[in-house]
Design a protein that fits this description.
With 411 residues, the protein is α/β, with parallel strands linked by helices. Helix content is 46%, strand content 9%. Strands 2-1-3-4-5-8 form a 6-stranded parallel sheet, with helices on both faces. Helix 10 links the parallel strand 3 and strand 4. Helix 3 packs across helix 4, helix 3 crosses helix 13 and helix 9 crosses helix 10. The longest helix is centred in the N-terminal third of the chain and has 14 residues. The chain is globular, with a radius of gyration of 21 Å. The termini are far apart. The relative contact order is 0.15.
C-alpha cells in the first residue's frame, strides 16, 4: 500500500485535560489500530497510524515534503532579509507609518496542515511580524514537542485535543497573560477558533484568519482517482504494503477514504484532525455530521447547544477573514469567510455568510459579531496560502498595528 498526503484531508475523543492530551500523543506511538475490524473500516488511516508508530520521523518528512510540493509551507520561498530591509526603509520614511505599526499586545501564530512551528518559514514570519510591529513579542504555538510531533499532530491529533494543548501553552506563557492577537494559516485557524470558542482566557483581541477552514471542507482537494489504483488486485496491494510507502497513494487515498463515510465515526473523529472539519453538504449526511463532527459541535449545529461558545466568541474584538479567490484546497472557498454550500443544492450553489443557518440563528456568535461591526473581509488573487508579503504586511498593519485604536473604531 502506497502513501500520499492528500488522502488525509477529507477525514481525527476529545480530551478534557492536558494529561489526557499528553496521553493521546503518547498513544499515537503504539499500535492504535489493534483489531482487524479497524483495519477493515479504516485501511489507509490505520496504515498511516501504524507508520506513525513504526517510523514517525520518516512519516513526518514525507508529510513536510508533500506540503512543500503543494505550497502549504508558509514563507518557505520568501527572501525575508530582503523583505525586512525594504520594510524598514518604508517604515522609517515617515513617522506616521512607524507609529501605525506598533502593537501593545503580543501576536500568536498557528500553522496549517503539513507545516510546523519549527519550520523556518513560520519562524521567519513571526520574526518579521515582530519587526513590523515595533519588536512586539511573537510566538508560534506548536501542538507537538518537536518538528516531528508538531507535523504529525496536524494530521493525527484531533481538533479538540489540539486546542487543549494550545490553550495550556497559552496559559503557561506569562507574556500572553493580558491577551494577544492571533494569526492563523489554513487549518491553524481551526485551532485558534476552537480556543476562542472553548477558552478565550486570556482573550484573543484580533483574529486574523488567512484561508481558514472555518466553514469546513465538503470536497476532497487535489485528488483525482487513479484508475490503475482502483483496479489493483488484492495481491498487488499486499505486495505494495510490504514495501517502502511513498506519497503516491497515502494522502489522497486517506482523504478519499475518510470522505467516503468514514469521517463520521468515533475512531476517525478521535484520530484525524481533518475528519473533524469534514462537512458533507448533502442532507442525507446531516444527522451523521451532527452526531459525530467536532466542527458541528463548535458551530452549535450538533444535537446539543453550548451557550459558552457565544459568550467566549464575544470576547474577541475583531475578526479578519481572508479568502483566496482561486483556492483549490478548501471547498467551498467561501467558507473561509463563513459561506456554506446550500443544502438544497449542495454542489451548485454556495450561500453567502448572511444566508447560512449559523449566521441567521447566531449559533455561535457570528451574527452578533457582524451587528457589532467586528468582522472584516479581505481577499487576494491566487491559490491556498499563496498570498504575497505585501498582502500580509497590509493586513497586519491595518488590523493589528493599530490595536490601541481598535476598540474605539469597533464601537
Amino acid at each position: 500500500m502506497k502513501f500520499s498526503l492528500t488522502a488525509l484531508f477529507a477525514l481525527t475523543a476529545c480530551s478534557s485535560s492536558l494529561s489526557s492530551v499528553t496521553a493521546t500523543q503518547d498513544e499515537a506511538k503504539k499500535k492504535v489500530c489493534d483489531t482487524p475490524k479497524l483495519h477493515e473500516h479504516h485501511p489507509v488511516l490505520c496504515h498511516m497510524l501504524d507508520r506513525l508508530a513504526d517510523d514517525a520521523h520518516g512519516l513526518a518528512e514525507e508529510m513536510t515534503e508533500w506540503a512543500s510540493q503543494h505550497g502549504l509551507l508558509v514563507g518557505q520561498d520568501w527572501d525575508f532579509d530582503h523583505i525586512i530591509r525594504d520594510q524598514q526603509q518604508q517604515l522609517t520614511s515617515s513617522v506616521s507609518s512607524l507609529l501605525s505599526s506598533v502593537s501593545s499586545l503580543p501576536v500568536v501564530f498557528a500553522h496549517g496542515m503539513g507545516d510546523s512551528c519549527y519550520n523556518s518559514g513560520m519562524q521567519h514570519i513571526a520574526s518579521f511580524t515582530s519587526d513590523l510591529l515595533g519588536k512586539v513579542y511573537t510566538t508560534c504555538i506548536p501542538t507537538g514537542k518537536n518538528h516531528q510531533d508538531d507535523t504529525s499532530s496536524g494530521y493525527f491529533l484531533n481538533m479538540d485535543a489540539s486546542v487543549d494543548i494550545f490553550a495550556a501553552k497559552i496559559r503557561e506563557d506569562p507574556k500572553l497573560a493580558n491577551g494577544f492577537h492571533a494569526i492563523g494559516f489554513s487549518q491553524g485557524n481551526n485551532v485558534i477558533r476552537g480556543y476562542i470558542g472553548r477558552y478565550n482566557d486570556p482573550p484573543v483581541h484580533t483574529f486574523l484568519s488567512i484561508n481558514g477552514v472555518n466553514g469546513g471542507v465538503g470536497a476532497v482537494p487535489y485528488c483525482v482517482p487513479n484508475k490503475n489504483e482502483v483496479e489493483a488486485t488484492a495481491a498487488e496491494e499486499e505486495e505494495e504494503a510490504s514495501s517502502k510507502t511513498t506519497l503516491t497513494m497515502g494522502m489522497c487515498d486517506l482523504l478519499m477514504e475518510q470522505a467516503s463515510k468514514r469521517a463520521y465515526t468515533d475512531f476517525a473523529q478521535e484520530h484525524s484532525f481533518q475528519a473533524n472539519y469534514w462537512r458533507d453538504p448533502r442532507p442525507v449526511e446531516w444527522e451523521s455530521y451532527q452526531k459525530y463532527s467536532q466542527l458541528a459541535h463548535w458551530n452549535n449545529e450538533g444535537t446539543t447547544k453550548n451557550e459558552t461558545y457565544n459568550e467566549n466568541y464575544a470576547k474577541t474584538q475583531r475578526f479578519v477573514w481572508v479568502l483566496a479567490t482561486e483556492d483549490g484546497m478548501v471547498w467551498p472557498k467561501e467558507g473561509e469567510q463563513w459561506g456554506a454550500a446550500d443544502p438544497q443544492a449542495p454542489f451548485t450553489r454556495v450561500l453567502p455568510m448572511n444566508e447560512t443557518e449559523w449566521y441567521e440563528k447566531d449559533l455561535f456568535g457570528l451574527r452578533t459579531a457582524q451587528e457589532q461591526d467586528k468582522n472584516r473581509f479581505e481577499s487576494f488573487e491566487g491559490d491556498h496560502l499563496q498570498f504575497s508579503m505585501d498582502d500580509f504586511t497590509r493586513w497586519v498593519q491595518t488590523y493589528i498595528g493599530e490595536d490601541s485604536l481598535q476598540d474605539t473604531q469597533i464601537q
